[in-house]
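Task 17 of the worksheet. Students: predict the tertiary structure of the chain below and write it out as C-alpha cells. Keep your answer in the requested format; marks are given for formatting as well as content.
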Amino acid sequence: MKAVIGLLLILGVSHGLEHCDGRQDGAQCFGPLGGTVVLQLMDRALVTERYKLYKSSTIIFNVINNNMVGPAIQNRSSFNHSDGTFRLNDLSRNDSDEYKLEVYFSNGSLKTDRTLRLTIQAPVSSVRLASECLSQGEKRVSCSSGGGDSPQYNWTLGGLSLTDTELLSVNSTETNSITLKQHVSGIVACSVKNNVSLGSHKEEISNCGFIFINCTTNGTHISQWVFAANTTLCVEPTTTFPTTTTPDPSTAGNWPIMAGVLSALVLLLVVGVAVVCAQRKKTSNQPTDEDEQELTYAVVKIKQRSGRQVQQRAEPEVEYGQVKFSERPRPTADPTGEECVYAKVQRGR
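Model answer:
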C-alpha cells in the first residue's frame, strides 16, 4: 500500500567553498567538486623564509621574498602571504592527493615540513523522500539524493531524534531507509551530508490506518494491529435487555402536590369552556335589527256622534284596539318576503 507523500516543508543544499586548517601535520582537508578550497598553511609568510608546496613529487608553488614563483597551477590558484592561505579553484578529482609544505630559512636550510591530505567530493543535491505502507501497518520511508560522495543520513521526527518506541529495532537512523511503527505520524526529516555539503528534506506523514486491538472473542485472545476500515474482530453482538424505571425516592413525596395542581388546572379549563359556550348561546338568541315581525291588526270601529250637522263633518270618534306584535322566525325560503294580516274596518254613522 502506498502512502500519500505529505507537504514539502524545507529543502536545502549548501556547498561550494571549504576552508581547512593545514597548520597541523597530517591534517585532513576536503574540497567540493567544481568548487573552491582554501588551505591555511601558516599564520603569515615571512620575508626571511622560503616556502615550497608539493603535490606528491610535483612542486605546486615556490615562494621567495613573498613572491610565488613557477606555480604548476597558476591559472586557478593563488597564495596570500599576509594570512598564509593557499586558494585552489575549480577543483577536480585529480586534485585529491597528499600535499607537503616545506619551510626554509633564508640560508636555504630546512626549518620544518608537514603534510596534509586533500580529498575532493561531489556535493549532495536534490534530497527527496518516499514512503510506503507495509502489510502490517508499518511505514517505510526512504531518502535519496541526486548526488554526493560518501553520504551520511540522519532522521528526526518533529525535530527530535527517533527512538526505539517509534522505530523497528532492525532499523538505524544512519541509513537511507527507516521503518516506522504503526502508530507513528508527524513531520519526518531526512538530512544528507558529506564533508563538503549538507541537504535536508521534511515531509508530514500519517499512519497507514491500522489500529491495535486487544480482546477475547469466542474464547480466543486477540492482540494485534489490524486495518481499521475492514476489520470485524472484537466486535461483539449487542443484546438489548428490558429495563424498568424506578421512581426517584427524592420526588416520591411530591406526587400528592402535583396531583392537586393538575386537578385544579383541569377544573379551571372546564369552567372556562362552559363560560365560553354559554356566552355564545346567549348571543345567538338575541334578536337583531334585521329580524322580521308579524303584525296583527285589531278591528277598529269609527262611530259618528249624533246632533251634528250633516253639512259640517264632525270629527269622528275613534276607538283603538290593542295592537300586538308577535315575533316569528326568519323564513328560510324567501328572506325578503313579508306577510301581513289586516283586520276588517267598519265605519258606523
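Marker's comment: Confidence is low (pLDDT under 50) at residues 1-15, 237-246, 306-314, 331-343. Residues 43 and 249 are 97 Å apart (CA to CA).
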